[in-house]
Amino acid sequence: MSEAEVRRCLESVSLQVGSMRLKEAMREASRLAPVESEDLRKEQVRAVTMVVGQLKTEKAIAESVGGLEPDEEDNLMKLVYIGLGMKDSTISLPLFKVHDALTKKAGLGCIVRAVCAK
């Protein structure tokens, strides 16, 4: 996937969050797998945390994750682990909330696939 495609996706997430279409924003943030570029990966993680920051309750997070397809679930879990690896305490809590919701929906296989992915 190209850098331009990732940037379009990130812009779409931002626009959807601004319009309070949060389920769509979560789906868009999860659409693309993490990329090679470390800077772009960080931007992908920020997009996820931007969406989660607007989802005020765990129920809202679970609902936004509930509409994801299996590939999107795996992409999102990979981004969660990348974000947790950044060791930034300001994003850890939202990422753990997403992790919890994803694990409840997709099961442990989602974690295994994310951890084992290259």
From TrEMBL:
Localization: Cytoplasm, Cytoskeleton
Superkingdom, taxonomy of origin: Eukaryota
Keyword Nucleus: no
GO BP term (any one): regulation of actin filament polymerization
This protein's UniProt keywords: Cytoplasm, Cytoskeleton
InterPro entries: ARPC5, ARPC5_sf
Primary location recorded for the protein, binned into one broad class: cytoplasm
GO terms for cellular component: Arp2/3 protein complex
Described purpose of this protein according to its UniProt entry: Functions as component of the Arp2/3 complex which is involved in regulation of actin polymerization and together with an activating nucleation-promoting factor (NPF) mediates the formation of branched actin networks. Arp2/3 complex plays a critical role in the control of cell morphogenesis via the modulation of cell polarity development.
UniProt cross-references to PANTHER family, sorted A to Z: ARP2/3 COMPLEX 16 KD SUBUNIT P16-ARC
Family note: Belongs to the ARPC5 family.
Protein name listed in UniProt: Actin-related protein 2/3 complex subunit 5
Organism the protein comes from: Chloropicon roscoffensis
